[in-house]
Amino acid sequence: MGYENDFPMQQIVDKDGYFVREDYKNKITRDLVLTFYRHLIRVRAFDRKAKNLQRQGRIGTYAMFEGQEAAQVGSAMALKENDWMFPTYRDHAASITFGHSLPTIFAFWKGRVEGGVPPKGKQIVPPSVPIATQLPLAAGAAMAEKYKGTSNAVICYFGDGATSEGDFHEGMNFASVFKAPVVFFNQNNSYAISVPIEKQMNSKTIAQKSVAYAMPGIRIDGNDIFIVYFETLNALERARNGHGPTLIEAVTWRYGAHTTADDPTKYRNQEESEKRREFDPITRLEKFMKNYGYWDEEWVEQETKLIDEEINQAVVDMESMPNPNVSDLFDHIFAEPTWTIKEQKDAYLTHLRGEA
Amino acid sequence: MQSLTLIQAITDGMRTMLKERDEVLVLGEDVGKNGGVFRATEGLQEEFGESRVIDTPLSEAGIIGSSIGMAMNGLLPIAEIQFMGFIYPAYEQIMTHATRMRYRTLGAYTVPLVIRAPYGAGVRAPEIHSDSTEALFTHMPGIKVVCPSTPYDAKGLLISAIEDPDPVLFMESLRLYRSVRGEVPDGKYKVEIGKGVKRKEGDDITLIGWGAMMPVLEKAAIEAEKKLISCEIIDLRTLYPIDKDIIAESVQKTGRCVIVHEAHATGGLGNDIISIINDTSFLYMKAPIQRVTGADVHVPFFALEDHYLPTPHRVMEAIEKAIYF
Fold first, then answer.
1. Half-sphere exposure of B230 toward its Cβ, with a 13 Å CA cutoff?
2. In the list A24, A100, B35, B71, which could disulfide-bond B111, CB 3.0-4.6 Å?
3. pLDDT tens for residues B179-191?
4. How far apart are CA B111 and CA B167, in angstroms?
């Protein structure tokens, strides 16, 4: 019943690293493959480091994305310099790929407000924490680009659970009605914390929800970085050319817990989860590189070493940040603080100095 | 200079700013072709086109959410919520995004958004059309709240709100929309956000209110004069940040105060005003501060709304309680 058969999962490269779509062969360059690979191993190394830092008490609760790297890296690589990104709290692989700095992302998870500040000249909105609330914002940012007559586009990330929220509908509908240049990039990892997708929705795919908004929708293998990259590129291109929004459902998997504060063994079999490594996005690209002559052991070793150094340096940078500035608590609520905030700040600083 | 009703002054304020700045957009339900259910945006779509005066889908969270995205991206949206009682679906967008974006990015993104919302009871409107929930917003960090009671203030405050670098909730008394009229200058002028105004000088007691309560205070003051009680009347105009100086100066002179609002008593803004008086003027007070407010009950179906709303008579009772304490 319905549209579930209309959205078969698309792939370019299968789990064994072979082309299933030969027509893409001539679109793929060595440079593209190596860039994919470098980004993928970089964000995975970041993710594992962040998890370890949390275990050591050096950052706060952290949301791991291991398993979802191809969906995030591939889609972020499709963006142009002036595009907008609206990530969630699990999408730092995307924001890092788009140009966020590693110490800044670490800082976010260390409870530092500096972690929300976008890199200069890049439109990366701080991660949305309340689920799906970023969809209407993304539609609005895209409407503004359209109003200004630019060819910039917006990408908006969200998960499978987000589709149950009203804001999902409102954002999709606004974007559709106003033909806003936005790509709604769903990562369907099958779980909203503990709730499996079968309990989240009766529809068999998320892509089919695009039908209700008369917008193009596509279901892709989110662990195949090739299809992720090229379909996001297509969707962005449509957006830039005035053809409005697209819904992309990237089917993927998070191996680990929802966050470091979560215990997934309470709601699923983690051994089963580990078996998903058969479909791992990085292993798949490695196989592809070996199958088609892109693999260069020396280059991989060298890049791995450089990435380790970069991440270790980012930890040093994060940990050598000056102590948080108490003034930041008060100084960014309004352009000019109101008298209540001024009084509260003065009173608190006086208290801190022991002069009260 | 022209003689305008409150709602005409609001329209004039929007028109002035639509003319002046291309970044200004108006959006909301029925604001375009229909000119708004109260006609606040009448003629604006005709004059400025569909790309600037936008009929949106029926979705408060969508209107406010997309306006936030626009405001972050360089535009100056004026979003209309048809009635304040319908703003709640957008509450999350306001609380988690509009008011926080500046802080979360240390100013890299800001949300210069105006939310216009008709509020208040007294016009025999259907259920849920009469709420006055300013305190839900004054409690929120990061948003200013204004509520004019005269056409002059309405236009001037609206222009200030549009040019304010932060979100502003602009409350419009639907009871006053067409029942007050006044001189309004042509073109652009501003009334400063955060400043109240003394509507009447007096010596014995200070009456504080805003929006639709102002005519109620004025009537009560006339009654009081008959009993030789001289009332000073303050129209707050801005509900956050409240003009504490005008309050302190007045109550330090009179030593007595009645605060009037149609919102519910508990958690209502009257309590914040009492707290300002407590902090600034405790030793000047000659009597406990009186409040005349809506009860802690829902704004009723309209057959009983006259029993919910503060009346001049109830205000007069409060004045006498304070005077003869």
1. 9
2. B71
3. 999 999 999 999 9
4. 6
| DSSP code, position B226 | H
pLDDT of A4 strictly over 80: no
Domain CATH code at residue B212: 3.40.50.920
Residues A341 and A256 occupy one common structural domain:
no
Q: Residue B147 has which token pair?
A: 């509520």
Is B190 part of a structural domain of the chain?
no
Q: A137 and B96 in contact by Cβ < 8 A?
A: no
Report whether B132 contacts B262 (CB < 8 A): yes
Range of the domain at B311: 197-323
Tell me the residue type at A201: M
Residues 6+ apart with CB under 8 A from A241: A151
Radius of gyration of chain A (CA): 21
Contact B234, B208 (CB under 8 A): yes
Is 0.85 exceeded by the ipTM?
yes
Domain ends where: B146, B163, B184? B184
Partners of residue B241 in chain A, C-beta under 8 Å: 338-340
Domain holding A349, by residue range, is 325-356
Pairwise CA distance, residues B232 & B69, whole Å: 44
**pLDDT tens digit sequence for A108-129:** 999 999 999 999 999 999 999 9
Let me know if A271 is exposed, middle or buried by CB neighbors in 10 A (0-12, 13-18, 19+): exposed
User: Is the CB of A83 inside 8 Å of chain B's CB atoms?
Assistant: no
Transcribe B30-96 into DSSP letters: T-STT--TTSTTTTHHHHH-TTTEEEPPS-HHHHHHHHHHHHHTT-EEEEEPS-GGG-GGGHHHIII
Taking a contact as any Cβ pair under 8 Å apart, which residues of chain A between 308 and 347 contact chain B? 328, 332-335, 338-340
Looking at the partner chain, which of B77, B97, B110 has a beta carbon nearest the beta carbon of A133?
Answer: B97
